[in-house]
């Protein structure tokens, strides 16, 4: 099958389009004929080698973390899916590879595609919706009436997180550029801050939760908009000791994570707020919950641009510009 692979870790290195063997099924796997795959900044970071310590893929490996397609084969222990099912997924770490014609994925990571979405829109959903779900529902347990600050509201995670937070009953603030203000308002944002002209720290105060996806400077400022007892969940780092423990890292890496996050944890403690790092994990059951929200009209996908499979490298370069509104998707097959 054709696939885009990382030949070696290299910053902004080109992906190679090559022929690789079709994936072999394990007992609990479904083989998915990929029809669309989203492109994420995570793909760029993995290719650049930023996650080599946590996710030591051995080149050459197929890149790609989101998939929508059709089940064409099932392992002997698969019970949830059958050949012909339209599905979507974020395959688990160490088994990614959606920039290809097929992928074998554990059925626990897969959900039936929302009936009201096509393959392109469905492919845009898994990684960002699981990130939003695990941050807002699982970790923060957002309650009606709470105030939630979601950074970069027109981005992939932000666009879904705004909609989910509103569904949970929160008042939502976000940052974006002026040209994207109408978009984030249409998604449900109550307070929209033009990050080019306004300082969110001077606008926001007494927030219950911040979903941080930006740099260290923004993270530090975000701590100060929280009320005492509030929580900041970061999806852009730095990793903390709790993450290292949950991820099963070795003692050396646990020490590294502790040192990397020591400064922000100390500042959070001084302010009487909590800091935690979230590294989204594959989870088909959570994705099924999202499916219900999509089919009921609570959440809608936001797709910026669609590229053909052979232009996957261009799609990744476009994502790296940071200008995409919502998600970028590649079409692999009809």
From TrEMBL:
Family annotation (CDD domains): MDR_like_2 (cd05289)
Domain of life: Bacteria
Cross-referenced SMART domains: PKS_ER (SM00829)
Domain Enoyl reductase (ER): residue ranges: 13-330
GO molecular function, one term: oxidoreductase activity
Xref: InterPro entries: ADH-like_N, ER, GroES-like_sf, NAD(P)-bd_dom_sf, YIM1/Zinc_Alcohol_DH_Fams
A Pfam family annotated for this UniProt entry: ADH_N
Protein name per the record: NADP-dependent oxidoreductase
